[in-house]
Amino acid sequence: MIDSMSLEIYKTARCSRNKICKEEDYTQPYKGFCTSQNLHYYGYKLHVVCSIKGVFHFFDLTAVLVHDIHFLKDIRSQLSYCVKHGGRGYLSQTI
């Protein structure tokens, strides 16, 4: 099973005052929108891969701007041994 969730670190009203993780572009949090909760947030996206029994295999934080399907393409070689089930964000005709 693979899925992602929004990981809010600041309310959007306070995001302009954020000073953490801005040293490098790849660690910087961004503004995003969570469609399932109809919520704007400032932070990261948490991707989790677990077995059907609920055992976590790995997880990763990405920028909000990284689409779920691009994350799946990055880890596809690590998950080549299993059948993958995910949310709608992981649907693609090519994968």
Number of strands: 4
Largest sheet: 4 strands, antiparallel
Basic shape: elongated
Identify low-pLDDT runs.
none
Structural class: mainly beta
% residues in beta strands: 35-45%
Distance between the termini: 15 Å
Helix content: under 10%
Number of domains: 1
Radius of gyration: 15 Å
The number of helices is 1
The overall pLDDT, averaged over residues, is: 77
Order of helices and strands: EEEEH
Show the helix and strand layout.
Blueprint: E1 2-10, E2 30-34, E3 39-50, E4 56-63, H1 68-75
Antiparallel strand pairs: 1-3, 2-3, 3-4
Overview of the molecule:
This protein has 95 residues and is mainly beta. 8% of the residues lie in helices and 36% in strands. The protein contains one helix and four strands; from the N terminus they run E-E-E-E-H. Strands 1, 2, 3 and 4 form a four-stranded antiparallel beta sheet that branches. The longest helix is centred in the C-terminal third of the chain and has 8 residues, at 68-75. The radius of gyration is 15 Å and the shape is elongated. The model has no long low-confidence stretch (mean pLDDT 77).
Which keywords apply here?
95 residues, mainly beta, 4-stranded antiparallel beta sheet, 1 helix, 4 strands, elongated
In short:
The protein is built from one helix and four strands.
